[in-house]
Amino acid sequence: MAEKRDYYEVLGLKKGASVDEIKKAYRKLAKQNHPDLNPNDPKAEANFKEINEAYMVLSNEEERQKYDQFGFAAFDPAYGGAGNGFGGFGGFGDINIDFGDIFESFFGGTSSRRTSSQNTPRKGENIRLGMEISFEEAAFGAKKDVQVSRIETCSECGGTGSNKGTTPEICSECHGTGSVRVQQRTAFGVMSTSSPCSKCGGSGKIIHDPCTTCKGKGSVRRSRTVSVTVPAGIDNGMTVSMHGQGNRGTNGGPAGDLLVTFSVRPHEFFEREGTSVLYRLPVSFVQAALGAEVEIPTLDGNVKMKIPEGTQTDTVMRLRGKGIPILRGSGRGDQFVTVVVQTPKSLTDEQRDLLVKLGEAFGERAASSGTAAKKKRKK
């Protein structure tokens, strides 16, 4: 007879572990060794059985007290005890265990051996597409038409798959559920499994006179023109969901959605940062030094703006309310104008002389002195 391992050792716990610690350890180990996740692995199956045995005792306060006091003798006759109705834990007696339920309750999913009815209503698949829009369209919104190829209900048969005047027959094998359930006795007890019905292919119905348009599928693929509303304030990479504009659902389920992801073309002048519009304004040295009134392009057209006397390069000025509208909200961002003072590259002799005199007036000496320096270079 193989030596049984201590239940606390099986779960990797110390004696006196809390209920939460026991549950946490069980979830982790049961998931690692679950037969569905380790097919054809006898060791994992044996481990899973041992883990469940330990958990059944330690998770029950009364049984745990007996085990802590008497050990295995409290349950298993082979160890000198009278047993407690667990069938010596050899195979859990004739308990009907559905491990799909265990797997679902502990891990938030379903066992691969347990499937829902094949003809349960299911939502149709979503359709994804990209759309390129201009900077202005992203800012103020627009209406755009797109061509969408999607699966729709066949208009000829109304989605039944049968020719007009005929109706599908309910499958006599699965009684319209689309799946059949089989019970099988295993080392763990009686395990229930389900699989698609082989007679109807999982549809739950048999079509004797298929529709000539959809060939019995109940659906066809068509190209449709869909009008897409571009929300004001949408940004590059954002996605808009159009409910019910995707592929047809199955078994009476709703249609999927159309997901449109926007790509915004770069603007000739502007850049965007959230709801702010950024613009770099080139000005001359004279305009920056003496001040000026200039025209600034905005999303609403040109506006006049004053450049204060003595403005330095990289000075930022704000035009309130000239930015991007707030997406699905009210109000707009601002436009920020960064002044860039441009240094003249080509000067006439007269301009050079004037700049030299200006420098001297500020107590500065130029690297060369105007026309005289230029004539000297020619010699």
What can you tell me about this protein's structure?
- With 379 residues, the chain is an alpha+beta fold.
- The protein is built from 9 helices and 15 strands.
- The chain has helices spanning 7-10, 19-33, 42-58, 61-70, 99-107, 135-140, 285-290, 349-361, 370-378, and strands at residues 127-133, 142-153, 169-170, 179-186, 189-196, 205-206, 219-230, 239-242, 258-264, 271-273, 276-284, 292-296, 303-307, 316-319, 335-342.
- The strands form 6 sheets. It has a 4-stranded mixed beta sheet. A 3-stranded mixed beta sheet has the order 1-9-8. Strands 2-7 form a two-stranded antiparallel ribbon.
- A hairpin with a 6-residue loop joins strand 12 and strand 13 (303-307).
- The longest helix has 17 residues, at 42-58.
- It is flat.
- The N and C termini lie far apart (114 Å).
